[in-house]
Amino acid sequence: MLSQIPIDLSKVSAAERNKEILRAAIIAELDAINLYEQLAALTDDPHIRAVLLDVAKEEKTHVGEFQALLLKWDQEQVEELAHGREEVEEITGGK
Fold it and tell me: How many domains does the chain have?
């Protein structure tokens, strides 16, 4: 589990720092999603499972929030996401 920033931000240029902060935040949210979904799969209590899955869903919203911010800061990321979508459409025939 992520309990500290995965990179040393003091070694990141000021121009890149906000992008790296947002990426670290996305990593933390994805880690939380994985944890909550795994715990939900393990519990036999439907109430605990429901709450864990609800919290996991909220974390997915957080990923979207951080990604929206990242896309404002990183034009290359915007372009590469579009390129990735195009590749998937080519491979899957748009399905």
Answer: 1
